[in-house]
Amino acid sequence: MSQSTKKFFPALTGFRAIAAWMIFVLHFFPFNNPIFPDFIKKFVQEFHIGVDMFFVLSGFLITYRYFGQKQMNLGEIRNYFINRFSRIYPMYFLITLGVFADFIIRNQYWNHEKTIEAILSFTMTKAVFAKYFFSAGISQGWTLTLEEMFYFTAPLYFLFIKKHKFWLIVIPVFIFVFGIFLRKITAVPENTWGFMQKNFSYYIFEFFAGMFLALVFTGKKNHLRSQGFFTYFGIFSIVLYLFLNPFGYSSPDFIRASQTILLAGLGILPLFWGLLHEETFISKFLSTDFMVLLGKSSYIFYLIHKGFISIFIYEYVFPNVLAIFIILNIISILMFKYLEEPANQWIRRKYIPTKK
Fold first, then answer.
1. Which terminus has fewer CB within 10 Å in the chain: N or C?
2. In terms of Cα–Cα distance, which of 243, 254, 125, 248 is closest to 201?
3. pLDDT, tens digit, for every residue of 202-218?
4. If we measure between CA atoms, which residue out of 296, 308, 238 comes closest to residue 267?
């Protein structure tokens, strides 16, 4: 089945807005106030799982769109990378450019360190270096390093998984162990910029959870059901995880891997399965035109929600979290409609040949 004939999933698209909003709440943390009890604060502090949801969704969508294709020739691989580039990079480049322009305007100087930050930011490689993981360019842009790595390697994963499904387990385990190995052997004095010293290999389990969901989804013919067991079980498991997770973000590698597997397997996957197959008020709400539009613009919202644009709104427009949230969503929609989508379509029209 070609990509053009693949289904569109409005509920999953609408859900992207929810995941992005969770990250916004985490970073602005409006509940970090003495009047709120500690369990509320801890609950909100776990909203970083919005990133985990994006990774599972990426694994699902890439696998759904491309896994079913026959052996990909060079032309199809080229089109695959053009599609990924046109979807991710133009707006990332534009906003990263804005980050560094804002730095120059505010500080009136540029040095060697900022040049390094710019190179790592524009190449989407900053997450490979612990020193620049959060500091360079768009601070939350470290997640795009992982997305980039997955996009580049996904066609190779497909080759193995088509041979035998056990590679769905073997490959992520191997990558996780290899990530630990890389961190150990590079833990030497004067390791340049902390190369591979912030291990993110455990996130691979979430991409592969999404791949597993796509393979199960395409392998069975299911119809919408009015019962919402999977939807509500997934939500319940996620909420339980948010309240009861005893481990922090800096836990040992095997703990973090166990967390991601548990969250994806018992929470995110059941929820996504429910949104794909069950007709509930939640799926109906997420499928509304307004939520779908917010979901489509959520990538821009994620890129701009923390940084010079939100700082500008706070300093010169309205210093209120709710106002910043609303204005950022409006800006995201406008940028999606008049910048992101036109740029995406222009690149595809120009560089992907049209089949006659």
1. C
2. 254
3. 999 999 999 999 999 98
4. 238
